[in-house]
Amino acid sequence: MEYTEANPLTLTQKSSCACGEHDAEGFPELDVRVIPHAIRHATIFGALDSLAVGSGLVIIANHAPLPLLAQVDQRYRDGAFEITYLTEGPEEWKVQFRREA
Questions:
Q1: Which of 8, 30, 62, 85, CA to CA, is 20 to 30 A from 2?
Q2: 75 contact partners, CB below 8 Å, separation of at least 6
Q3: For the segment 6-51, what is each residue's pLDDT rounded down to a tens digit?
């Protein structure tokens, strides 16, 4: 299947790729601490854009992701995501994004 605007790629919990691996139960986790700062938010937005309704993603950060959450609010004004803090510091924050629309 080819990516087009009418046919976007989606992130699913179970992969059908040939590698033989699959995601664990629950939403996949993206540890953003290992992503270079210059591309961190772009990487997160790429992952969020790929989520189908009902699926989700958990990001792991080393600080409260308030600037990211402000950007998410601006970028997805239609209430596309339910956002829940799973862990709130002091050394690790986990934030769950669940696609609502």
A1: 30
A2: 45
A3: 655 555 444 455 665 555 568 999 999 999 999 999 999 999 999 9
